[in-house]
Amino acid sequence: MAMTSFPDTLPRNRLLAEISLWSADLLNLAQDMARIAPYGDILHIDVADARFTPGFLFFPDLVARIAEAAQAPVHVHLMTQGDIVVAQAQQFAEAGADLVTVHAETGPDGLEALDMLAARGIAGGVALTLEQPLEALEPFLSKVAMVTLMGTRIGIKGAGLDPEACARISQLRCRLDARGLEKVLIAADGGIRETTVPDLRAAGADTVVMGSLAFGAEDLPARFDWLRGLGAQLA
Ligand SMILES: O=C(CO)[C@H](O)[C@H](O)COP(=O)(O)O
């Protein structure tokens, strides 16, 4: 079931660890979820239909099982486009997502999806690909709890952070502050590495979507000690 208090229960004084289940061992998903449970502030689930992205990723029945077992809020990132986004957002809300993010590239369909989510008491988010200007976010900002900015091409993992990613986060932070939307969280998604997290945090990211940085860590407690120390230092 969705934890309807999202995002109010999240700490705001440090960088949040948003763990991407796409980078888990999918054959041992339950074990990997248990392994990262003490550290993950949010579980990030990428949903893709191989039209907006190169491949398919995750589906509602699986997300429902994940949500039942989850010890952290579940964020579904809908990497899809077209009027189908309203029905998709509804399916993932019913599956137990606490936050459903649509892409700004969906335009009026995405706005309709956010209104539908709000009517059901589910938090909404908006995401933007690297290629799109930040202006595309404007109609969405007053309707969302989180903005996810891609730092790599969408729908791929293992890629390096784009050189523009930090500047885009800083510009978005200014945009949000200017509109009195200081509480809206900024998530950095893609290219999250030990070398890039300090700059992303300094630019204004509230949460980083960790794939291999979490599941590939040899020493998980040390990796998250590092992350939390870093967040406290830069907050
Ligand atoms: O959508 C993503 C990146 O765009 C995913 O969150 C992915 O899990 C990241 O993996 P990695 O950090 O290992 O590249």
From TrEMBL:
GO terms for molecular function: metal ion binding; racemase and epimerase activity, acting on carbohydrates and derivatives. InterPro entries: Aldolase_TIM, Ribul_P_3_epim-like, RibuloseP-bd_barrel. It comes from the Bacteria. GO terms for biological process: carbohydrate metabolic process. The keyword Metal-binding applies. It holds the Pfam family Ribul_P_3_epim. Coiled coil: none annotated. Keywords: Isomerase, Metal-binding. This is Ribulose-phosphate 3-epimerase. It comes from Alloyangia pacifica.
